[in-house]
Amino acid sequence: MPMSLYNTPQGIFLRPFSLADSEALLALRNRNRDSHAPYEPLYEDSFFTLEKQQDYIRQKLRQAEEDRGYVFGIFLLKEERLIGYISISNLVRGVGQFADIGYMMDHDEQGKGHMTAALKLIIQYAFRALSLHRLQAGTLLHNDRSQRVLKKCGFQPEGIARKLVQIQGTWQDHQMFGLLAEDDVWQS
User: How far is CA 61 from CA 85, 93, 130, 161, 163, in A?
Assistant: First the structure.
């Protein structure tokens, strides 16, 4: 899947990670370790090493080969600097044809529209290239910023999933959002 997705007016592009991105991913994770901790699982210190980031990328490359999930780095167009990532995961084929969406943006790049632009690109990729029927995402109940991004891209709130994911070692409720291929909002 050696392809890139571009939003030139926003100044970003997305491309699948390669092992060459390991150091940039590690730097991104370390730079955002404290600011993103309230929204992430508990990670051991070993997670924040080059070896673990290489393992992560290898795992994601295998998932893409098996059509089980895809992860794209989000890069600034001019600098080709990694500022985040976005994933299509837990991909279900057969009668389901759906997947989960997840994302992360460098805290210094938040509020600039990059994530909204990246999500719109991934939605088009998921529905057009992967022929999925449904995308879903969950956010912590208090994560207003992430919820705004989802709503701007046409996702609809669907309810609360009780104790869905362990965040910082505690099972947390998540507001669930869904978007269907047949929804007109993403096609504009």
Answer: 14, 18, 16, 29, 29
